[in-house]
Write a structure and sequence with these properties.
Elements (H helix, E strand, L loop, with lengths): L1 E6 L2 E4 L4 E9 L6 E7 L6 E7 L5 E3 L7 E6 L4 E6 L8 E8 L13 E2 L3 E6 L1
Length: about 120
């Protein structure tokens, strides 16, 4: 089992920035992909971004590309999601997820492990 714990969410004004963290523990895979998803009230959970453990490949949703950036610290088993130029429509619960194969995916069902989520609220 892999346990994922997100942190760093909060309330921020439009145009502001936040950094979310996802700490992984338990069984670790030598090669896996970490992803971030988000779910806004009344909407389905959607892909935000993904990063390989080696951090040599990232992928972002069109709606966040250029504003959000993922980074990985393998020594700490932690991945980060840097959010900048935040908009009210970025308000959501942000989830960290892990998938145990190296095939890049934006599909929620391909991810094996999930964190509990952290709330990000952007005020206008």
């Amino acid at each position: 089992q892999v346990q994922l714990v997100e942190s760093g969410g909060g309330l921020v004004q439009a145009g502001g920035s936040l950094r979310l963290s996802c700490a992984a523990s338990g069984r670790t895979f030598s090669r896996y992909i970490m992803g971030w998803f988000r779910q806004a009230p009344g909407k389905e959970r959607e892909f935000v971004g993904s990063i390989t453990r080696s951090a040599d490949s990232t992928s972002y949703a069109y709606s966040v590309e250029g504003r959000f950036t993922m980074a990985s610290d393998n020594a700490k088993n932690t991945v980060y999601l840097h959010l900048k130029s935040l908009k009210p429509e970025d308000t959501a619960v942000y989830y960290c997820a892990a998938k145990s194969s190296m095939i890049v995916s934006r599909r929620e069902r391909d991810y094996n492990y999930w964190g509990q989520g952290t709330q990000v609220t952007v005020s206008s």
